[in-house]
Amino acid sequence: VFGGIATVQLWLARCACRIRSCSMLDVLYIAITVAGFLALWGVVKACEKV
Amino acid sequence: MTSNGILQILVFFGLVLAATKPVGLFMSRLFQGKWTFLHPVLRPVERLVYRSCGVKEDAEQRWTQYAVSVLAFSVFAFLFPYALMRLQGLLPLNPQGFGAAQVSPDQAFNTAVSFMTNTNWQWYSGEATMSYLVQMAGLAVQNFLSAAVGIAAAIALIRGFARHETDTIGNFWVDLTRTTLYVLIPISLVSALVLVAQGAIQNFHPYAVVKTLEGATQTIAQGPVASQEAIKQLGTNGGGFFNANSGHPFESPTAFTNLVAMFLIFVLGAGLTYTFGDMVKDTRQGWALFWAMAVMFLMGVFVAYPSEQAGNPMLAKLGVESAATGAQSGGNMEGKETRFGIASSALFATVTTDASCGAVNSWHDSYTPLGGLVPLFNMQTDEVIFGGVGSGLYGMLLYAIVGVFIAGLMVGRTPEYIGKKIQRKEVTMALLAILATALLILVFSAISVVIPFAKGGYWNPAGPAVANLGNSGPHGLSEVLYAFTSGSENNGSAFGGITVNTPWYDLTIGLCMLFGRFLFMIPALAVAGSLARKKVVPTSAGTLPTHGPLFVGLLVGTVIVVGALTFFPALSLGPIVEHFLMHEGTLFSMVLGPFPIWS
After folding, report:
1. ipTM above 0.85 for this complex
2. I need a labelling partner for A22 at 20 to 30 A (CA). Which of B46, B108, B427, B498 fits?
3. Hey, which residues 180-209 in chain B have their CB within 8 Å of chain A?
4. What is the pLDDT of residues B1-58, one digit of tens each?
5. Rounded to whole angstroms, how far apart are CA atoms B484 and B481?
6. Residue of B514, B525, B531, B533 to mutate, testing the A interface (most A Cβ within 10 Å of its Cβ)
7. How distant is the alpha carbon of residue B289 from its chain centre?
8. Residue B498: beta bridge partners?
9. Distance (Å) of CA B186 to CA B42, B135, B179, B191, B346
């Protein structure tokens, strides 16, 4: 699920990369962060079940 | 130690003690929805915020909703500063013409996570990197919001103890708004005016270029400093406008502003202990937490200060006078705030790492091994000594849960705290929070001392990650350990001596900050939700009193023992062995080239 969401984000961000000062590395780091938040959301769900 | 130095420490502690009740009482009334003296002015603004954001003031949230609100808010708290930094060249209030070249993607990631998580770890010199717009709209705004998130989470946990047989723990958006509007903005405003009155600068001028007395040319950085400085300390953020942080005379012009800075770092964390006591209807419980924190604070400062005042024994052997006299400070003055001396530097270093502030007025890398051990251990025990705003209190409450659990095991009774039975879920969550940060620190430190990178590559152009260290031997290990400790515990202070401005360190320390913040906060909220559902257990003859010296001792012991058991092996290889080697005659001086971690 995380991989799929990250792929969509990458594609959307690639469009945004037409802003000259942005690069694919921006996409990478934003995707890492969003994936991190999704993992934390998973932690919330897991803690609920404990 | 000198009597002057001891007096400085005691006066500072006295001020914090005096402010604890009034500040705590104000916050207690505020978060219980009662009228305060600021309501006539700020209540209309608060209502306007709710109307414009679509917040239903009376709608309560379960802990999962509260936690997801925190995460959702934090996503945007990351994206906005990130975009500001990368696009600063296209935006106004940028007289120095800084652009995307000053902040690469990995650096923007690191800084955005840093300010979103209340860490304020800085790989950069503010005056050479960030436009005024980024400093104000990106970083200073996050100073307010990240601090408000921490306090909101602490209030949610207090409600978990104070309420019973309910599913809800408050409303994150209301708590966030009230904290920012009634607590952070008013105190910051007054503090910024005090700083300006003392000589801190506040302007939008381009940098001044002047001729020095020797005829050289010097650039003097300017900017809106005082406004950022006030919330930097109050919100236990710590990110300096300038690279020299609170050692810069434009940030802290006088000894009085140095005292104000330390007071602001502690005042909300201390006040929240009283808030806790007042909200659970037993102020003795709050004072017990306060005194547990106070005992650990005094223990730390009275290890750091004498260690620095004793100085380096090898210099003494060479005949250098290291005793304090009327004419000189004695001790280890290397890296100290020379205007204010050893006591004030050691006190500041202890305060900033007791709390999760990270502002510095001296160079921790230059401390003696034991002097440097104190800030490191303060952070590794999860900064529960008054702590980060909010995070200090909920951290201490998690340790209290572990403490009463251990005490319960000893006497064979189900543990109770504040009238609630402490069961499997609470203990599991408390230990998850404590172990998660320890895991991040130790795993990333371990990887960094062994991971090989090709020289000239993307992740670490200097080669292996240890090539970035400024010192060899145990001091080098302390530098790595301190960096990941500071990131994972959301402190943000730098030991120094390690070049962290590479994609490897930007990414890994960024991940430590992100997971260190929320893997501590989410379990705390889970505990809040679990406790709020429980019935109140009447006090009986078998109930452990949690408001007296016995409990204070138990709590202090729990924090220190858990911290020591977790980090003693790593600390033994770092500052502890360095201390003994120093007394044997071996020092680990600054080296300029790549050096193995243990030579």
Report:
1. yes
2. B498
3. none
4. 889 999 999 999 999 999 999 999 999 999 999 999 999 999 999 999 999 989 999 9
5. 5
6. B514
7. 18
8. B469
9. 10, 20, 10, 9, 29
